Amino acid sequence: MRICLFNNIYTPIRSGSTYFVSKLAKRLKRKGHEVVVVTSKFKGQRSEEVIDGIKVYRLPCLRIPRFEILHNFQYFTYTFSPVNLYRIYKIIKRHRCEILQVHGQIFDLLASAVIMAKIMHLPLVLVIHTYIYHTNRFYNFFVTLFDKLVIKQFVKRCVVPAGDTYSINYIRDTYGIDPMFAPLIIHPMDLKAVKVDKRTIQHTKEKYMVKKELIVSLGHVHNLRDRVEIIRSMPYVIKKFPDVKLLIVGDVYTQKSVRLVKELSLEKNVSFTGALPRDEALRLLLASDVEAHGLTLQLGLGKAATEAMALGKPILANVDKDFLGKGVLKNWGNIILVRPGNVDDISAALVKLLADKKLSKKIGGSAAKLIRNHFTWENTYRQFENVYSHVLKKNKKT
Asked: How, if at all, do strands 48-51 and 54-59 pair?
């Protein structure tokens, strides 16, 4: 098959969706498919290049300044123009693409992909990575209204795979369509174990001034995952473990977490590292006792969570126990479930895990087994093959 992938951001920018799209592109190519990527062109980048054997086309764009309503995200771009539509048309023609697949309903390449799919009579798949929501009620009114009135008109023209209860409900409630069920499709893992010796782990701890217990919170800090509840839980944890360290890893797009650390005088125990190279972040996870992030809103299990689980680390999450289907997630078996935004739950769970190393190791081992059995790229690839076969068959009938 010949597939064109769209995402407004792409490697070398670090984000969950860029990681996913680049890995998917390489996996599809390895399986014998022809893949091209259409994305935005940032300063210093070429208009066309080959990355890991994948042809990448970068479109001229306008960088949208950081706005609170957009969670201060620094990589929002505007690519929609007649000239870029013609460029995309030529790219699809040149590579004789059979399937269009766009990542993220929050970016404007969705509109371009929908227009191309209609003009060129091609099937279109949409993969949703992020729900549209804002923690500020005033902003949330406008972004959810825009989602339901405007974005809905584009999404309903796509086939949208989804495999967890939150995604399925969000797609049905917001866009009025039934998604194509594709279990465990979003955050697969490379199961090549990251092996480091005790000396490397010790060096990592020393580098970040970790004396004893280490809690890692991996992922960009923004309004949807601001870490406020984890930070508020730290005074209780510190009473039991005075030298515990919380390292928050990722770009910081909101300052309320930074301000809260200062207000609670937690500078000794809580640090923001900023974004780190993937290998460095994984070394920190390996050195950690537990991973916890995004415990305010119920947004599902992100890549950071599944990475920690794959490395045998217990994680805190606020998803429902049947989020991935009945019996998949087992509370205090392969995951620790807490109520959304509940500081008492979070602090009690952290204290229990840090105090009981055997229990922590057992849960981490079960978490790694869950990832090995479900969250693999081979499983994800098979799911996408099923989606592609479905949309091609459906497109031939119309």
From this structure: antiparallel
Mean pLDDT by 10 residues, the chain (398 residues): 95 86 92 96 95 96 91 91 97 96 94 96 93 90 95 94 85 92 62 63 85 92 90 96 95 92 96 89 90 81 84 92 85 94 94 96 94 82 89 81
Contact partners, residue 330, CB within 8 Å, separation at least 6: 321, 366
Q: Residue 16: name the closest of 210, 345, 264, 307 by CA.
A: 307
Contact 284, 258 (CB under 8 A): no
Residue 133's nearest CA partner among 49, 87, 43, 69 is: 69
Q: Which residues is 100 bridged to in the sheet? A: 4, 124
Q: Tell me, what's the pLDDT at 304?
A: 83
**What are residue 4's phi and psi, to 5 degrees?**
-110, 120
Map out the domains of the chain with their CATH numbers: 2-188+376-397 (3.40.50.2000), 198-374 (3.40.50.2000)
How many whole angstroms separate alpha carbon 379 and alpha carbon 165? 19
d(CA 246, CA 288) in angstroms, rounded, equals 9
Q: Is this structure's pTM higher than 0.70?
A: yes
Residue 351, amino acid: V
Residue whose entry in the numeric block shows the structure tokens 């000794």: 268
pLDDT of residue 195: 59
Q: For the chain, what's the residue count? A: 398
- DSSP secondary-structure letter at 73? -
Instruction: List the structure tokens of 376.
Output: 């693999």
d(CA 118, CA 396): 14
C-alpha to C-alpha distance for 360 and 357, rounded to whole angstroms: 5
Question: For residues 6 and 9, what is the distance between their CA atoms, to the nearest angstrom?
Answer: 9
pLDDT at 325: 79
